[in-house]
Amino acid sequence: MVFRSGRGPERIPPVFIDGAAVERVGRFRYLGHIVTEDFRDDGDVERERRALAVRCNMLARRFARCSPDVKLTLFRAFCQCFYTCQLWTNCTKSARNSIRVQYNNAYRILMRLPKYCSASGMFAESRVNDYFAIIRDRVANFWAHIRNSKNEILSTLSQCLNSPIQKYWLSVHQDRNIK
Questions:
Q1: Of 87, 68, 76, 104, residue with least CA distance to 166
Q2: 146 touches 154 (CB < 8 A)
C-alpha cells in the first residue's frame, strides 16, 4: 500500500513485481487490521463491531439456558477481545460510540437484560469491565510492551511524546469518552 503525505505527488507511478503491475488499493487488511491510505481507523472499528455482534449472537443462541456465571465467563472470553483496539488512534467519535453501544447491547442480549437498563449499573453489578476499562487496559499493556521492548526502534518510539499512540494512551487515561 502506498501512503502519501499531505504534500506528496498526486500521481504515483506503477510498481511492478516480476513484470506484473501491483494493484493500487485504498484499503488493505494486514494481519486482520484494516489499514487505509488516509490512516483512518473507522473501517477497522466497524470490522470489530461486526465481529462482536456475530460472536454475541452465537453465544446468546447456543448458551441461552446456561447459568449467569457460565454466560459471564463466555462473555469475558469472546466479547472483550477487541482485536487491534490499541491501534485505533484516528477514528471518529461515532465509530467509537458504535462499538461501545454494540458491546453494551451484547451483554444485555446474552444476560437477557432490558434494552434500556443502565450500562454502568449492569457492569458494576456483575463485576465486568465496561468498554472504557477494556480499552484503557489494552492500550496500557500495549504501551508497556513497547516501552520494555529490546527492539531499539520500538523503545525509541515509546519515548516520543507526540506520537499518535502516546496521545491516544494519554487520552484514554484522562477522558472516559475517549476522544
A1: 87
A2: yes
Give per-residue pLDDT as tens, 55-100: 999 999 999 999 999 999 999 999 998 988 988 888 899 999 999 9
Number of domains in the chain: 1
Q: Is 165 exposed, middle or buried (0-12, 13-18, 19+ CB in 10 A)?
A: middle
Asked if the structure places residue 5 within a domain, the reply is no
- Encode pLDDT of 99-110 as tens digits: 999 999 999 999
Instruction: Give the C-alpha separation, 109 to 146, whole Å.
Output: 36
- Enumerate residues 6+ apart whose C-beta is below 8 A from 29: 35
Would you say residue 54 lies in a domain?
yes
Q: How far apart are CA 85 and CA 52, in angstroms?
A: 13
26/23 Cα distance (integer angstroms): 10
What's the pTM?
Answer: 0.80
